[in-house]
User: Fold these one by one.
Assistant:
Number 1:
Amino acid sequence: MGDEPIAIALKRESAAVVHAAMTEHPRRRTLLRSIRDYAIVVCFGALFLALTFASDVFLTSTNLLNLLEQNAPVGIIALALTFVLITGEFDLSVGAIAMLTGVLAAYWVAPLGVWPALLVAALCACGLGAINGVLVAYAKINSFVCTLATSLIIAGASLAITKGFIKTVPDPAFSDLGLGEFLGIKYSIWLFVAAALVAALVLGRSVFGRWLYAVGGNAEAARLSGINVGGVRVAAFALSGLAGGIAGAIIASRTGQGQAGDGLSITLFAFAAVVIGGTSTLGGRGSVWRTVLGVLLLALIVNGFNLIGIDPIYQQIVQGGIVLLAVATDSLSRRR
């Protein structure tokens, strides 16, 4: 009997500890999610203000439009990669697809004409993305390994077509897509804005957008609820290929030539922008507006460092550190 009050006190103390833990963990989880979702806004705003005061050239229409134009192709790719990552998959071949698109368009201008060549090349890129999706969804190949292998194949194919030479297009109309303007703004910027609006509507307002989140959140539950998981993944990869095709067409049109390459720098930049924007590498989380801010944040780092005169080596260090921090924050928010 003498031990009963002690036992009751211990039970009450244990209950209090459990209650405190249950209330503390949601608070930590909410804090980590808020950091993951909105830290990009704070970082972008802070860097924008810092560069505004640090450089007289930064906040000018010429500099800002150049910044958007230079990053429009990689921004379009980043939007499509957001779809792929939301499903829990990776696409490392999109840069190589972009380079192959430019090569095909350059070679097809003579028999097809400028705009048909660009369109057909972009559609071929969409087909290559769909092949990636089929291999991942139905052949059950790991998406990282699959797209790494296909990127090597695609880069090799573009090199075989060009035989190591640059294919120059003499037709001046070929440069209209990359250098043409509407209301004083380059076509590439308009395409980036249009792609962002369409991607936002698809993710936020369409059934397909809900399917993407469902597949990335829990593929088995999505399958049991009647969603065609394989079809959703194929569609996501096809959109990634199409985005690579559009970006490749813009790049080739801007330079007036098609050049073979693996496009690795394009892929890594776009992937970094998506991750910095808060899209989870494990799937089920992501948004278009944060991806756009991720692209612009990386663009501000490059542009601002160049204006201030900081060594480009430090640009890569800062970008890599931001990516690592974003991934760590997402991992912690999921774990808790």
Number 2:
Amino acid sequence: MTAFKVLITGASGFIGSHLMDRFLEDNLRVRCLVRSTSSLRFIPTERVELVEGSLSDIDSLRRAADGVDLIVHAAGLTMACREEDYFAVNRTGTSNLLRAAAESSPDLKGFVYLSSLAAGGPSRDGRPLTEDVRPLPVSCYGRSKLAGEEEAKKFSDVFPMVVLRLGVVYGPREKEILEMIRQIRRGWGFHPGRKDIHLSMVYVTDILQAVALALDNARPGWRLYYVSDGEVHQSGRIMSMIAEMVGKKPVRFRLPLGIVRGVFLSIARFRPEARCAFYLDKISEMRHKYWLCDINKARQELGFQPRVSLRQGLQATISWYRRQGWLK
């Protein structure tokens, strides 16, 4: 695979930038689709080829896809004020990229679409979801990612297609868990909802392993895999672990989701942009106790083996934040 050229969408983002690092280490030729407003902070521009464009600009997508051997579609909208905004990027943008790839690189050797556990929905009976369980997303984001998967499936007779539904991804450069860590360092342990949430999580380097295995094992057709560290993590235990690592004993308190929603709506009345910043759509997901997936299929068919435990991953993440001056 070392002689191949790979296109990464979302290369300026959290997962995309780590993918770029991995592919450069593997001596692949890397092309990155970036928006005109994208930060290039984590992109070594002297080592990669940049194509400026967007998922709504089909001409830029044709240029980006022209002549590549592999595509990893990591771009996506995770925060929006309206459902149609999610679908414009996560469904229509994915469709645009697939059409451009089919036109510009008909001999594509592999296409990996990074989806989310949110597309599968919560585990209503507490058992980890498997790939054959009917997806029932409960949020706008989840529905839009599932719609992106359905677009990808339409092209499975054109080039090899792999969809990876990721658990909660964390690691250096990620911002959501950073806010939790900052809150705990200030001495507060805020928990939305009355009960702990049970989560499937995965450190970002294990995602890179899964993507590399998916590309190495590319074959005709459409395949779907859940990806996580294979463990069940309780939200309260995650907070305790972080508190231990930052040397704090935060005051913990829980708020019913109805109150949380009311607070967010009150803030949004005076600051419309906060409606997005506080992930109001995520409250729909917080109402469910179990967000779990089974990774046996990825283990058996791809040879995927999670290598980073939650404790190791959190330690590495916090250390990186400190080195970057993100924790003050």
Number 3:
Amino acid sequence: MWFKAQAQITTPEGINYLGTHNTLPAETTWVQLALLGQAEAFRAGGSAPGVEGLDRLYPGGPFDPLNLGSDPEALAELKVKEIKNGRLAQVAVLGFFVQGITTGESPLKNLDDHLANPSVNNIFKYTAGWA
């Protein structure tokens, strides 16, 4: 199941990515985690190689390559948008997990089923007492 994929990270076969036969080796995940961890360590420490005085809470400097945060008012607005975007993403992922646990199928399979027959394949199919 797609929501149990994290357990495959430590297997020798790696992750079977999106149902293809090309596997993503577990080493790729560990390298990605190490690189992201290093970037977060630089941000949390307030300095990166060649850059001093980074904001510990928000990206900037080398973490803002498009220089979107040069205007203080725009930066304040972008901070709020980032928080709202992150919260919306968390709610969406929670919905995917609940849907996967409830139906036992992937979100794409559920979408295909719903589009094929919307009057039958909907939330009421899995809700107790709404048959």
Number 4:
Amino acid sequence: MEGVRRLVAAAKGPGDLALASIHWGSNWGFEIPEDHRRFAHELIERAAIDIVHGHSSHHPRAIEVYRGRPILYGCGDLLNDYEGITGYEEYRDDLALMYFVTMAPGTSRLARLRMVPLQIRNFRLQHPGSSDRAWLASLMDRECRKFGGRVEAVDGALELRWA
């Protein structure tokens, strides 16, 4: 962690945001391993990372807001080379989210996190129907509640709420 801290300190100037993009976790499932959570917290606490972007899963996973900074544990796919592979239908890897993170100026704290639901069909993105958007909203709300957040549908998109 000390090496990451030094690299961030050397590169991050006043008003800059530092984002760590990490390929971690399994391709399928919603469990967030405790060591991933600890590592993400340490990145924020010790290395001054402002946004933790996790990727590897082929479907969206929970989001946590820790010390005012977002941790996206698994963002899923926008391009999916798994299309047509069977055995994982319960995860709905055809449904995707595009994430729009707004940080408060001068504080490096999360101000807003908006997600736009999309559906992947024939390697193309399209807007999903209302029942698919509702399924995705329910899923994200269930998973984010485990970390003290909740997700609400707002004007065809999803918004993260946190304390």
